[in-house]
Amino acid sequence: MGSRSMLLLLLCLLAGTSSIVHGEDPYLFFTWNVTYGTLSPAGVPQQVILINGQFPGPNINSTSNNNVVINVFNNLDEPFLLTWAGVQQRKNSWQDGVAGTNCPIPPGTNWTYRFQVKDQIGSYFYYPSLGMHRAAGGFGGLRINSRLLIPVPYADPEDDYTVLIGDWYTKSHSTLKKFLDSGRALGRPQAVLINGQNAKGDGTDQPLFTMKPGKVYKYRICNVGLKNSLNFRIQNHPMKLVEMEGSHVVQNIYDSLDVHVGQCYGVLVTADKEAKDYYMVASTRFTKTVITAKGIIRYTNGKGPASPEIPEAPVGWAWSLNQFRSFRWNLTASAARPNPQGSYHYGQINITRSVKFINSVSRDNGKLRYALNGVSHVEPETPIKLAEYFGIPDKVFKYDTVQDMPQGVPSSVTVQPNVLKFTYRTFIEVIFENHEKSIQSYNLDGYSFFSVAIEPGTWTPEKRKSYNLLDAVSRHTVQVFPKSWAAIMLTFDNVGVWNLRSEIAENRYLGQQMYISVITPERSLRDEYNMLETGLVCGLVKDLPRPAPYT
Description:
Blueprint: H1 3-21, E1 27-39, E2 46-51, E3 60-63, E4 67-74, E5 82-85, E6 110-116, E7 122-128, E8 140-145, E9 159-168, H2 173-181, E10 191-194, E11 209-211, E12 216-223, E13 230-234, E14 239-244, E15 247-248, E16 253-254, E17 256-259, E18 264-270, E19 277-284, E20 292-299, H3 317-326, E21 353-362, E22 369-372, E23 375-376, H4 384-389, E24 414-415, E25 419-423, E26 427-434, E27 440-444, E28 449-456, E29 474-475, E30 477-480, E31 484-491, E32 496-502, H5 505-509, E33 513-519
Parallel strand pairs: 1-4, 3-8, 9-12, 11-20, 21-26, 23-24, 25-33
Antiparallel strand pairs: 1-2, 4-6, 5-7, 7-8, 9-10, 12-18, 13-17, 13-19, 14-15, 14-16, 14-18, 19-20, 21-22, 26-31, 27-30, 27-32, 28-29, 28-31, 32-33
């Protein structure tokens, strides 16, 4: 064969290889039927939300860059939405599943979520985002595994388990919603659950998980509750922390972990103890009355029951603060992409804008409301994202009604939509200041951010000297301890409308949330995907013509 013919053959082979390499990423398809059911997770029969008859709902087991398609049939008697906490929905806030971006799925109908877990790995969960639905269930684990070509900084575990812990109320979600609507607080939960259960300890409990002697297992622990931070531990088994909300971390060993509401940790546990049953334990933190849940881990060749002696949890939030300070980003590990995490030098980027959010509470006229910078958010009938897309934001809400850097706790609370606009690709410093006596936990959709500091007291510019500008963990949640502040840093490089919310359900429902609008004037597919033809419309845009699609 001549050299020219050989060259043509090689070019053809390379072209074929290129089409395979750059082909569309794999799809995962799910059909979910959302229904009510009656269960007794806390020993009292009550109404729960089931997905395909399961409580908690089914796990989503995906890999970086997979396309996820979930057809959700709403068989409840009221509108319904699911949100995918921690999934960044790159250029695609249409699929975020919160009231500010999506019209709800009406009862008796279905709607299909379509999103890609683009350039992400890690441990997450999904849950119902409307009203107080999360108090009834409807939540489940969502894991994003690394692609085979990307090295992971630990050996493959024998198995990979999802552990959903959370406080639990025995009142129905509709009753809890009525409490809040009437001006009452939720009060103390009645139980804590581990994967929807609490072991009785009478010898009849079935194991939640099994382990083979000598093997290493990964546990993904997420706090899916409504109010309480929880301490998680396993009898006689230390935990090696390896991952946190999509970031590989420096692998420290912990006897227990404080998991605040909305947060997820990935740990490795070695089955190297006496072959029998052991309790995993979750108990409330920072509460006068400690509520505890247990679940059984069983060695496959185990012959004895779990010891009734439960390991004690730490006391006070200073311990929890010190634990936060021990968390470090693994600079040499690769996450979803081949380049090491530490190749992104966030500490060397100039801050474009600083914003401080101060949470406050109001009880005017017997009505309980929570606020950020003096504004208690209410959801307009027309989702904020749709109002922007259809060009009628002025008919639905006003931008930037709060100050960037308020001085002290606002003396009053205004009830209205709270929307703050940020310029695309700017690097932002956000400070959360908590003057209350209770802990706060925040989540930002669409992004991960660097949690550079949490400290007691009030923030001042001099406090920037205490920031971790080298190896703070990139994640999507941050806790703020009582009478304390927290600082995060991030680039607003994901166009869309994104929910910044308290993960404390009562606070969120009564206004301690807002929306971040990141827009570009080009209306280009380079920056944001088009609204799907199947996208639901409601409110003022219901009968408006669709805008011209992005190009």
